[in-house]
Amino acid sequence: xxxSGIDTDGREFKNTAEMWREQVxxxxxxxxxxxxxxxxVGYWQEVDASVDGVLxxxxxxxxxxxxxxxxxLKNLFSDLLFDTPTxxxxxxxxxxxGIGRVTKNLLIRYFNEVDLLEPVSHFLEAARQSLTQExxxxxxxxxxxxxxxxxxxxxxxxxxxxxxxxxxxxxGHLTDDDFVSFFENAKAGLKPGxxxxxxxNTARQGFVLDKEDHSITRSDLYYKxxxxxxxxxxxxxxNQKEFPQELFPVKMYALTxxxxxxxxxxxxxxxxxxxxxxxxx
Length: 281
Ligand code: SAH
Known about the structure:
The chain is α/β, with parallel strands linked by helices. It has one domain (5-274): Rossmann fold (3-Layer(aba) Sandwich). Helices cover 37% and strands 22% of the residues. The chain is built from nine helices and eleven strands. The strands form two sheets. The chain has a seven-stranded mixed sheet, sandwiched between helices. The protein starts with a strand and ends in a 6-residue tail after the last helix. The relative contact order is 0.15. Residues 37, 40-41, 44, 54, 96-98, 101-102, 118-120, 123, 151-153, 168-170, 173 line the site of S-adenosyl-L-homocysteine.
């Protein structure tokens, strides 16, 4: 599939191959690829360890972001973890966690343990401080456990540790090939029935290469093509509401490794059949 795009200077690329060749070189030209990742992390190293910092100056969207994420997560819990005992010990991984904004405002309330993965050390240290201060996390059963200072493309999770792997606003730093290998590796980190949540900016079409932070914003179609390559099942999507107009539309994707069995599947199937318009013969 040909996906064309632009960069933030308005330059056009006729397809992703042309853009990636320029950014990270041909196979084996690892210097360019090392630079791509170094520049991506380098950009964030200069950014303040604050909510405004990790949200590119839009700290004000934090509340709406968390609210929509929470609704999405709660629905997925009831859909996908419905046959899980209520006392199951739930564990999440927050990828590209920054200062731990998503963990602190959302994940820690639902999961007994959260691990954070973040390549920029001053962000990760800020996360560690705010999440391990006494009294912040509250009950002993809910805590931030591991703080991994590594980039996504170099991470291999402990097998079967996670119920949910959350990836928000960081996958744009990965090349297509690393995107696919990240998910392939990370699958092994999920418990049976576990799932991924990817929350990202979406380009209206094709892709937009950001020359400043060295990331790309992909369109919905582009993401779907990559999910197919990862062998992932797209279980549900939802659009973020109430964000300022000038921002990219943001989408949430829930991804599973298999097509999940649905609750009351027989009943809803037969209901569906009964409600289907009949053929007039
Ligand atoms: N997910 C957080 C932070 C978003 S800011 C939140 O929603 O608040 C983008 C984050 O991606 C930064 O913390 C940055 O350091 C991180 N990042 C940059 N390159 C990365 C990479 N290769 N792997 C993982 N994270 C990366």
